[in-house]
Model the fold of this input.
Amino acid sequence: MATAINLLPLAAEANDAYQRTSFRHWNAGRNPTDGCNTRAEVLLAEAVERPQILPGCKLSGGRWWSYYDAKWLTSASALDVDHMVPLAEAWGSGASQWTAERREAYANDLAVHPSLVAVSAASNRSKADRDPYEWLPPAVEVACRYTSEWIATKLRWGLTADALEIGTLAQQADACAGATVTYEPAP
Done:
């Protein structure tokens, strides 16, 4: 993990002019004809017990594990799909310089699992736009997984990290002996 942290470019965050609408998210997903947007596709992919898909891609039933807070959920409406690296964080870490198309690709990244994660709405809203210096999952036993996925997402998209973020990631790496970071650069 420490080796991966050293690959993150160090830069101060610049959140000037950030607007959530700069990232077109929850687009038509992999199959534009099935009526399921990116959010629904993540929920379907992460369901431990698959929900029934009703007309308009409404999900009924199903069961999910929210790893951030170690909770089972049985309603799709109780889940949020979290951007591992929040949109505002991505913006301040380099996405402000991207094209609208690249920001859309980032916000709907179904190619790599940790980019988008189905978690309880409460844990996602607790996290908000914060980086690991400001927020780690309340389920402490998953901190190493979360840190690895955070780093992998930043590296996948070529995003920078500020000094406080890197300091926290380094502390996490020390506590996560043997944890690895694997990533595939985004196209």
Notes: The mean pLDDT is 96. The CA atoms of residues 91 and 98 lie 9 Å apart.
